[in-house]
Design a protein that fits this description.
With 494 residues, this protein is mainly alpha-helical. It is 67% helix and 4% strand. It has 3 domains: 95 residues, Fumarase/aspartase (N-terminal domain) (Fumarase C, Chain B, domain 1); 226 residues, Fumarase C, Chain A, domain 2, CATH 1.20.200; 68 residues.
Length: 494
Amino acid sequence: MKKYDKFPAQVYVDSFLKQDLHTYKTVFKDALFQINYAQCIMLHEENIISFEEAKLIFKNLYKIEHEFDFDGLEYDAKFEDLFFLVEKTLIGKIGVDIAGKLHTGRSRNDMEHTMFRIELRQRLITNIKEFFLLIDHLIERGERGLHEIILLYTHGQPAQASNLAHFLFAVVEFCLRDIDRLMKALNLVNMSPMGAAAITTSGFPLNRERMAELLGFEKIVHNSYGAIASCDYITTTYSSLKIASINLGRFVQELINWTGFEVSQIFVPDGFVQISSIMPQKRNPVPLEHLRLKLSLCNGECDKIINTMHNTPFADMNDSEREVQSEGHKAFNLMSKIIPLLSGFIESIQINEKSIKNRINSSMATITELADSLVREEKISFRQAHEVAQHLSKELILKDIALDEVDFNVFSNLFEQLVGLKPSISRERFKEVCSPGYFVNVRNLPGGPSKDTIINSLEVYKNELSEYKKTISENESFINNSKNNLVKFYKQYS
């Protein structure tokens, strides 16, 4: 029987500790050193350590960060994790009487959740900026598609005519909402736990607000127990990313439907087409399938993190720490692959005008406007007008006649039969109100597809996007300035 009376048990090393060290040094090392530098500065500013002590600590921390071979570092049972390795290395350089002061008033608890937030913050900012790129492409292609008529579907069936701008700007709207959710998650993440120590702060005169400032956080997590025990900054982040992946997945699925031969609404350029090894005619829009798959994987990665938090104690626990934090980053890595590919595809979209025109006419997709126009011009109720249009569409579909090919007399006789009067609408007017262009242009309520409405909506989107870009730019500037200030302090202490 193996002995398990000495830490660490080999099975624990092999199953967890080796991988944990690898994760620590490759993902969280930079954040660890940022926290150490900030702690050193704050302790000196609060007169807890002297300038000479701060100088020795800071200078030797810098040497460790830049001279130690972290890439070649393997797990050593002498050190439980990277924190202890760095601490012991610092002690070896300047002695425990000085190096040992760096950990005054802090714990691995507040340090680690600060590291997690630093890394998650950067991933959120990167992801939000990727959404900016996507929206820029959607807007650009939408502006070009203002006069490109398309056919919209409901329940998998042809419904009504619109234009490409109207459709793509619906995607812009949910992307802006996704950004709003991600920004709210960022606000939760961008709070410093430092100074919470284990769970109850400490009796030392630490400056929590100064630590937050030095590390680029907007503010502190006020309650020290919640700073360690709460995990809603994690669940909010991955819930927001999950919703974004669902939204984009539905959009991609609709694009896949549009590329199908039976719908044939968009033409996919050769750059996004893969061929068959046996069927010469095949043009498979495989990148869209990869997008759908990656969005499903992203959704699953988010679920994994959210579910990990379920039914865990409201306390310090490993369930919300390094292992799960690094797993969650996979969702962001996937999104970083998804958005550039989707943006490129959107930029390349070409409308299949001939196919769309045929399907609009054969499906009677503009006949709602005939009913609406009959209400306005014949002074009948909508239900009467609807009945006329419904009977007309049924008859044309049965006889396989497109709406733009119908004999006006067929409509006129049907109207007289159902309403009891001859229609006053002219042959030319009948043809006009049934046309796709008229259908789109007359729909000028807010949010509709008419040109003026689209232009008004576009201004709203651009203004909202501009505000988000400004906020993220300000956040990045504050974070970068904080990092640069740490470098300036090195010069002061060197």
